[in-house]
Amino acid sequence: MKTIRDYDIKSKKVIIRCDFNVPMKEGKIVDDTRIQKALETILYAIHQGAKVILFSHLGRVKEESDLEKNNLLPVAKRLEELLGQKVFFSEKTRGKELEDMIETMQPGEVLLVQNTRYEDLEGKKESKNDEELGKYWASLGDIFINDAFGTAHRAHASNVGISTYLPSGIGFLIEKEINALKVLEEDIHPFVIILGGAKVTDKIGVIENLVTKADKILIGGGMAFTFLKAKGMNIGKSLLEEENLEFCKRMLETYPDKLVLPVDCAVTNEFVDTEEYRIQKIEDMTSDEMGLDIGKETIKLFQSELEKASIILWNGPLGVYEFEKYQLGTKEVLKYIVEKDKKVILGGGDIVAAATTLGYQDKVYHASTGGGATLEYLEGKPLPGIESIQ
User: 349: which residues sit within 8 A by CB, 6+ positions away?
Assistant: First the structure.
């Protein structure tokens, strides 16, 4: 697959699709990790003398009120600070004003175009990969580079649409993501997977695709309780997906030695962070209790399985991570595998956020920037944003 290195981009108008979908609060950036991750490709283009045109989405735009809170101007200002040079900003996603700004660009200059999802306000032109919009955006540049792994599983006008009409390649971020995730295709054992998060539904594809390759799958988070229920255990008021009970039962019967479930958990009576919790063995749970994190014996059990691992894939926290009281399982297991210097791939989303908060993100082999994209890749599904370039 072609990368940005394969093109002579000097004095060329290079459109780079980035993922600047950063968390915002009252118009301010809460976490600029995604901007930081995009810098390598942008700086390369600047140093090669390209006219750098950046596209990205931010949030969802369904109505007029969404425009202001999803304005990319704060991203342009932060990018300016990180690059140490002026970043021009177009308030428009199309039209003469944008075209004039691009026409007057000099080599090495950077322009950020307003949120591509502003085009969703009338007919979801961006999200539905409107052909006319993709063709128009492509007309603004000479070369297209996709470096937004977080949206690679979506066929949008700003990735698939543009790549249809321009010579295209990937940036360094997507290249690193693909190379890191390809490691999982190698015959490295023991291969241990940690799966957490709320729902079994989100992980069915991953389990089905990887269960034959993995030596063990450690299951925590809310999804564990559907597996425990399928095993015939009382889970009280814990999260349950009845529609997935048969799937869980089939997995447990087919792979009894591969799936490792919690033996105890932190239980309480209300789904809040203010109530006191207690550690309870799974078999001792009462009907009015709910489990919100794995317990200390489960932490030890998981650590003993991870001790043997040569490579670890982790997707989803092991407890209700947004509640401070129920972060212990995730923290302790993460700390353990980092201190043991294990080869760890964090599969995007909440587990990467947890690792960032705890200061471990840079200490793992790879922390994926994709949430849905990583999951779909692990399920073996093609990613349209990358397939279109291939």
Answer: 197, 315, 316, 371, 374
29 and 60 fall within a common domain: yes
**Bridge-partner residues for 88, per DSSP?**
111
**Residue 107 in contact with residue 128, Cβ under 8 Å?**
no
Which pair of tokens denotes residue 115? 């949120």
pLDDT of the residue at 343: 92
CB 198 within 8 A of CB 350: no
Tally of domains in the chain: 2
Active-site residue set: 34, 199, 349, 372
Q: Which three-class secondary structure state does DSSP give residue 169?
A: strand
Tokens representing 42 are 């942008």
CATH of residue 275's domain is: 3.40.50.1260
Looking at the structure, do residues 200 and 239 belong to the same domain, yes or no?
yes
333/300 Cα distance (integer angstroms): 9
Cα(144)–Cα(299) distance, integer angstroms: 46
Answer whether the bond into residue 256 is a cis peptide, omega within 30°. no
CB 79 within 8 A of CB 43: no
The pLDDT value recorded for residue 322 is 87
Of the pLDDT bands very low, low, confident and very high (cuts 50, 70, 90), residue 309 is: very high
User: Do 195 and 262 belong together in one domain?
Assistant: yes
Q: pLDDT for 220-234, tens place per residue?
A: 999 999 999 999 999
Give CA–CA dist 74/77, Å, rounded: 5
- Structural domain boundaries enclosing 240: 186-378
